[in-house]
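Look at one such:
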Amino acid sequence: MDIEESLNAKGSAAYKAVVDGEMVGGAVVAIDRKTGHNHLDLLFVKNGCQSHGIGKKIWFAIEKMYPDTVVWETCTPYFEQRNIHFYVNVCGFTITEFFNARHPMPDVPADFIGDGGEGLFKFQKWMKPLPH
């Protein structure tokens, strides 16, 4: 999904992070108020502003905004080690699936290049007790 699709998707909300009047990052989420299964489509921190806790502050502010969330989901490319560390070790997500040539992600066009041809990790963060 590209940025424009994310912004125009049902239930989408976009946020920007501003420090001292300067935009330093932002996020796009897709919220399903009926099921509580929400998706983080994009979280970014401006180049040069990274490693100052801004991404962490953005993420935890989003969590507080949606207290009825049952589970958050997001994906990041296999090669993005910094993102993998961030989602798992900083934000508390768990890797739940690895999409690749032998296990393709559903509904993704064949010409998708967002993963650099190396695959995507799917992450989930359960906010309520796991279903039985």
